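Input chain follows. Return structure tokens only.
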Amino acid sequence: MIQKSNIKNNHIFWSVVTVALPTMLEQILSVLMQYVDTAMVGHLGANATAAVSTSTTITWLIGSMPYAFGVAAMTLIAQAIGSGEENKIKQVAKQSLIFAIGVGAVLEIICLAVTPFVAVWMGAEEAIRPAATRYFFWISVPVVLKSVQYILASAIRATKDTKTPMVISLLINAVNLILDYIFIYGFGLGVDGAAYATCISASLGGILTLFVFFRNPYLGFKDSIFKTDKDITCKMWKLSLPVLLINVASTSGYVVFAGLVSHMGTIIFAAHSIAVGAEELFYIGGYGFKSAANTMVGISYGEQNHDKYHAVCVSSIICTLAVMTLSGILLFIFATPLMGFFTSDANVISLGSKVLKMVAFSEPFFGMYIISEGIYYGLGKTKYPFVIEFAGMWLVRILATYVGIHFFGQGLVYVWTCMIADNVLKAIFLTAPLGRLWKE
């Protein structure tokens, strides 16, 4: 019996890895798309870097909203697959498409309406505001198609097809890279060229994801899109709303956080923005396993298989800790070369590499924080993570940063210390209840 159990657990372990790896690569490609813009304009000077970086946290906020509905789609589809409810899968898929278009349309209108004010809100210096405004406008144009890609890709991953979204990401990154080079350097368009490239490649991503969605045997529905199941609609809202609030609390916190740093000067803000973007590549491993945990926990919950759930949780945590520990080591070693990849400004490189080496030690904690969220989401329990996220972001990170900057004259090192403390505390409070989650 013990041998059979070990074989079964090993099978689940490798299933988690197999599902996670394409998602990890997809996440890496998504970050590289931002890297390419930042790196290519970074060699045009600190002002160009700041112009692109000004809207980074705003775009995170925009992207976090479709992501919330993607979590609901992934969870409900995975649970329906586990319980063998074929009709429910297609109904959730249909509802996912409705939310993808609806949420995207609302965000599109909002983004275009606030475009003239974003650079001012983010405290950008007068010299970079026109370029920053044009950049935000063009990357906002394909928001509807971005929403389609975010939500429908989550639905596709719930069927354990994580390779296709990865291939789409690979393709649009290649398009973005080629167009960046042509527009920025070939046509000499600078920041505007980066915006055009992002607009075109993001649009392509949404169109390709929509095509794949309808080709998926689990998800493709044939009845009218207007025939919806009210019960499923309510469940999607119930799951999405706390995740949406988590993401709004988190990403709006990032916006405020970035705004606080932007008032510390262009050099400090450029160092902070590049360092934040650089670190993003190193915690992608955790997000890959978070997505896998969400899917596989959802399936095991649909099957009402507690042993499988336990094995998925253990496997996901072990893999995440291993990957994030390795990421922390690599981030510490390559902090300075990484900053040098994005900018040639010696002051920006020095300050940015210093805070990256600091945050490298907290990567395993960040991994525990995000994998725990994936487990909560797979079980359809999204309220508690919202409470922890809100408290950590606004009390630990934002309030402490504000007090340190405005009352004690602290610099960027202190700011990143607050960020690290936020991640460590969230990891502790989310991980502690994992053992009793299934019973709740």
